[in-house]
Write a structure and sequence with these properties.
- By secondary structure, the protein is α/β, with parallel strands linked by helices.
- The chain folds into 2 domains: 5-175 and 353-385, Rossmann fold (3-Layer(aba) Sandwich), CATH 3.40.50; 192-349, Rossmann fold.
- Helices cover 42% and strands 17% of the residues.
- It has 15 helices and 15 strands.
- Helix 7 (205-217) links the parallel strand 8 and strand 9 (226-232).
- It starts with a strand and ends in a 7-residue tail after the last strand.
- Mean pLDDT is 90; it is low at 377-392.
- It is an enzyme of class 2 (transferase).
- One of its GO terms (molecular function) is glycosyltransferase activity.
- Residues 18-176 form the Glycosyltransferase subfamily 4-like N-terminal domain.
Length: 392
């Protein structure tokens, strides 16, 4: 097939986009690996230029935002989408102006359009900011969901969220791809627990810090134990986190980490932790497993295979449950820890292997560009039955 120009449209092409940004970076690399051309289109922000090298020379277009950043209105965006002569447009994330721009482009260009909500239709998310989401649904989201040739879910649970919100049963389920797995670990790392991600209420960091303080007060932590929190967020949420940490011993907030600094933190950690209240499919867990580092995570991370195959421990979401999981983790001997690390590495090299997932996406993109692929309601794309395809 002719080399396709595949647009990846997202609210932020920088670290401010959190896990969605990391997923878009991975998507761009997979598109390039299968012989097509990724084109990244995003709203501009203060880190857009600094983080552009993450896309390794791919074409990146950012648009100036007018008005509130939470809406992301960029009047030049639709024009840029047309100018870029895209064969396919793939929207990552919803609830902001790029959703409207993507739907307009799809209607006007009559070219394939894919939407990946990235967990943003989960009940915990839709229950927050109800008035804003009600307006978004009315003015552009519902029309965009109808306009899309394909809705993409990261997990079967997210496919159910999409069906509930959008009424569509033709969702393709393809997980995020993790980074290439690293070498096996030779020694048991120091008792460091690391969190890497956006500083946001859904990450449930208050409960994590409370759990750590409980263990500290009970003298139930190893002498060298540390909780390292690395991340970014809006100023108010970061300030609240720092205040919450206060004088809790051996808890450090180190701000955002990327590249080699993130890799170094993972390699020094005995466990990564993510006690989230809601997730799509967190890149932080896939990055940890690739390190390979076992993970303490809640069931809301939507990665049951981590529990089933031994690469993760369910830490729950309450302070008591998180404290119990930390006790279990620190009591683990060298043999048991290495067994978990090996399980994490197997997950990274099989279920979430980048080359495997790249081929699923290649099949999906090329299938949609094919006239027959768009027309056949019963065609299977990436292993998911595509039925009830909606037209605008």
């Amino acid at each position: 097939m002719t080399r396709l120009r595949i647009g990846l449209l997202t609210a932020s092409a920088s670290r401010l986009g959190g896990g969605v940004f990391e997923a878009v970076v991975q998507q761009a690399q997979m598109i390039e690996a299968v012989g097509h051309t990724p084109v990244i289109i995003a709203l501009g922000d203060k880190f857009s230029m600094a983080d552009r090298p993450r896309f390794k020379g791919a074409e990146v277009v950012t648009c100036t935002v007018l008005g509130p950043a939470s809406i992301g209105y960029a009047p030049q965006l639709v024009g840029h989408l047309h100018r870029l002569r895209l064969d396919v447009l793939h929207l990552h994330g919803i609830w902001m102006y790029p959703s409207r721009a993507g739907a307009v482009w799809a209607r006007q260009s009559r070219r394939p359009y894919i939407i990946s909500p990235h967990g943003m239709l989960a009940p915990w998310i839709t229950a927050r900011g109800r008035w804003k989401k009600a307006l978004a649904r009315t003015y552009y989201e519902r029309s965009g969901w109808r306009q899309a040739d394909l809705l993409h879910a990261l997990t079967t649970a997210e496919a159910q969220d999409i069906m509930r919100e959008c009424g569509r049963t033709d969702t393709a389920v393809i997980p995020n791809a993790g980074p290439p797995p690293g070498a096996p670990r030779d020694t048991l790392p120091a008792p460091i627990i690391s969190f890497v991600g956006r500083i946001h209420p859904k990450k449930n960091l208050n409960s994590l810090i409370r759990a750590w303080a409980m263990l500290q007060a009970a003298d139930a932590l190893p002498p060298a134990a540390q909780l390292v929190i690395a991340g970014w967020g809006n100023q108010a949420q970061v300030a609240a986190l720092q205040q919450r940490i206060g004088d809790v011993a051996n808890v450090r907030f180190i701000g955002p980490v990327t590249g080699a600094a993130k890799q170094s933190l993972m390699e020094r950690s005995r466990f990564a932790i993510l006690p989230s209240l809601s997730e799509g499919l967190p890149m932080a867990v896939l990055e940890a497993w690739a390190a390979p580092v076992p993970v303490l995570m809640s069931k809301h991370c939507q990665l049951p295979e981590g529990f089933n195959q031994g690469g993760a421990i369910d830490c729950g979401t309450t302070a008591n449950d998180i404290a119990a999981a930390l006790r279990t983790a620190f009591a683990m001997d060298d043999r048991k820890w290495h067994a978990m690390a090996q399980a994490a590495q197997r997950l990274a090299s099989t279920r979430f292997d980048r080359s495997r997932i790249a081929q699923l996406w290649n099949h999906t993109y090329e299938g949609l560009v094919s006239p027959k692929g768009r027309a056949d309601a019963g065609k299977e794309i990436a292993g998911s039955s595509i039925a009830d395809r909606r037209s605008s």
